[in-house]
Amino acid sequence: MDVPLFAWLAVLAAIVAMLAIDLFAHRRAHVIGVREALGWSIVWVLSGITFGVVVWNAWDAEAGQQYFAGYLIEKSLAVDNVFVWAIIFAAFAVPREFQHRVLFLGVLGALVFRGLFIAAGALLIENFSWILYVFAAFLIYTGWRMIRTRNEHVHPERSRVLRWFRRVVPMTDAYHGQRFLVRKQGVLLATPLLAVLVLVEVTDIVFAVDSIPAIFAVTDEAFLVFTANAFAILGLRAMYFLLADLIHRFVYLKVGLAIVLVWVGVKMLLLDVLYIPTTVSLAVVATIIAVSIVASLRATRGQGRRTVEADPAGAFRVASDEEVAALEPVLRRRRAAASAR
C-alpha cells in the first residue's frame, strides 16, 4: 500500500481541524447531556466511516476492510477505557461541567502517545518479524487475564501514580473552575483536576499497550493503524458522556473484549500457517461485540441510567467565588526594570 506524503498531511490537518471544532464548541464549561453526547457520537462515527470509504475507494477493498476491522477493534476496546474514566471522575467527585476539558487533553495526549507506539511497533515489525509472535502471546495473556478479573473494579485511590503525584506536587483540595494550576500566597498549587488528568493520561497509555498490538493483527500498514486509532479515539469524549451512566448494564462486554483479544492473538500466531481473510476477521469481531452487547442489555433490561459509584480518592470540593477571586496570576509578569530603578 503506497501512501503519499500529502495523504499523511491531509489526515493530520483533518484531525487538528476536528479537535479545534470540538474545543470551540465546548469552550464554555457546561454539563453535556445525553442528547448532545449522542449528536457528537454520531458525528464522530460518521467521520470514521466516511474516512474508511475514502480508503476503500482510494486504494482497494482489502485496505478498506483492514481499516474498518482496526477501527472496530479500537472502538470496542475504547469502551473499557470509558468505564475506567467514569470511575476516576467519580472517585475525585469531578463536577460534570469540568470533565470535558480533562477528556479533551486526555484524548490529545492519547493521539500523541499512540502515534509514538505505532511508529515503534511498525519499526519493530519491519526489522524483527518474530515480534508478531510476542504481540500474539501478549494479547492472548491479556484476554485471559481480562476474563479472570472481569468482576474486579478499578480503585483510583490506591493508584501508585496518584500517591507519587501527591508526594511530589503540592495540591489544593478545591476545584477552581477548569484550572489545572493556581497560585495562592505566592505558592503554585495543582488542583485536583490536574491529578485527574494525570490518571487519565496514564490510563490511555496502559490501554494503548493492549490495543496497538491488537490492530497490528489485522494490518501492518502504519497509515491504517494510525488512522483507525485516531478516528476511534476522537469520539471517546462523546462516548463517555453517552455511556458513563450505563456502565452497570454492560455486564458481558468485558468478556466480549477479552474474547476479541484472544481471537486476534490466535490469528496473529497462525499468520504463517493459516491465512484468515480480513473479511472473516471483521465479521468475527463484529459478531463477538454485538453478542456481548445484546446479551448485556437483555440481562439488565429494565435498569435505567445511574451515576457511577467509586471509593473516594479524597475530600474534594468546588472553590467559592471568594476563593476564586483571591487567586493570584499563575504566570507572573516581570515588572519593567526601569520603573524599579
Q: Features of this protein?
A:
341 residues; mainly alpha; two-stranded parallel sheet; 13 helices; 67% helix; globular; Integral_membrane_TerC; Integral_membrane_TerC_rswitch
Number of domains: 1
Rg over C-alpha atoms, rounded to the nearest angstrom = 22 Å
Helix content: 55-70%
SSE order, one letter for each helix or strand: HHHHHHEEEHHHHHEHH
Main sheet attributes: strand count, strand direction, barrel closure: 2 strands, parallel
Approximate shape: globular
Poorly predicted ranges: 334-341
Helices and strands: which structural class? mainly alpha
Query: Helical region count?
Result: 13
Subcellular location: Membrane
Family: Belongs to the TerC family.
Protein name: TerC family protein
Keywords: Membrane, Transmembrane, Transmembrane helix
Describe it for me?
By secondary structure, the chain is mainly alpha-helical. The chain has one domain (5-303, 320-328). The protein is built from 13 helices and four strands. It has helices at residues 5-25, 34-58, 61-91, 96-127, 131-148, 160-168, 192-215, 222-234, 236-243, 253-269, 278-299, 321-325, 337-340; strands at residues 174-175, 181-184, 187-190, 317-318. The strands form two sheets. The chain has a two-stranded parallel sheet with strand order 1-4. Helix 10 runs antiparallel to helix 11 (278-299). The longest helix is centred in the N-terminal third of the chain and has 32 residues, at 96-127. It starts with a helix and ends with a helix. Mean pLDDT is 84; it is low at 334-341.
